[in-house]
Amino acid sequence: MSTSDISSVTNLLAEAKVDKINEVSFKGQSLKLDEAKDALPIVKAIEEAKDVQSLRLEGNTLGVEAAEAIAKALEKRPEFQRARWSDMFTGRLRSEIPPALRSLGGAIIKSGARLVELDLSDNAFGPDGVKAFKELLTSTACYSLQELRLNNNGLGLGGKILAEALIECHKLSTQAGKPLELKVFICGRNRLENPCAIALAKAFKTLKSLEEIAMFQNGINHEGITALAESLVYNKNLKVINLNDNTFTAKGAISMAKSIEHLDKLEVINFGDCLVKSEGAEALADTLKNGVPALKVCKIRVA
User: Fold this and answer.
1) What b-and-e string marks burial along 250-267, b requiring 16 or more CB atoms within 10 Å of the CB?
2) What is the pTM of this model?
3) Cβ of 303: how many Cβ atoms within 10 Å?
4) Residues 223-234: what's their mean pLDDT?
5) Which of 4, 123, 247, 257 has a 20 to 30 Å separation from 201 between CA atoms?
């Protein structure tokens, strides 16, 4: 490599910008945080950090008083962006989780922070949990949200509440001149079934910004699959669809085939264990043969 080449590379490296996330992490420490005093190490870490853009609390168990203490510290962090809070209520009573979520969500709102990521996966809070963080999800704090991860929460009919909150957030953020542009929606293993799938399909039509949708193992059959399929075409930048382990049958598969042919950026399809049947498989095969130019990974199971 010549001296001039080395100089060019050096200049490029100097001009390059690398986004660094300042994170406070207590991931996987198996801490049992009941009272405010139990949360002092986390509170101190938040207070003493120069910036706190991300907080990881997964793999611990958080009680109401401890959550309130952590929330107080977060109130002073307007730079906060990523709430990585999966698996943080193990062993807690169902009644303990909503007030803890309300405290933490309220603190984010009060701080003036603008979230990019909210991960509450593997917390068994059900519909009551969705109600508890609905205020956060419809607040200015979530107008900037790009990734929403809600795997394995036992949502059930709470999926309808979630759909309504997303639509409301989009409406309010649009009125404020900053439309919600959610890119990643992960909601597997939540017993959503048809009613919630249909409600979320309405939300997807409203959003129009999704790049990844994962709703695997949700007991959705052809009626819900058809509604979801119709919503996908509104999201032209969609790259990943994971509906593994739902029941398409031929009706759902044919609806899906009609939709994915319009998704030029689609890279990954996972329809494994979806019972698409022979007729549905043929419809999907025809679409994949004639369209979907960006496709890299495809998983489909016929029976």
Assistant:
1) bbbbbbbbebbbebeebb
2) 0.92
3) 8
4) 98
5) 123
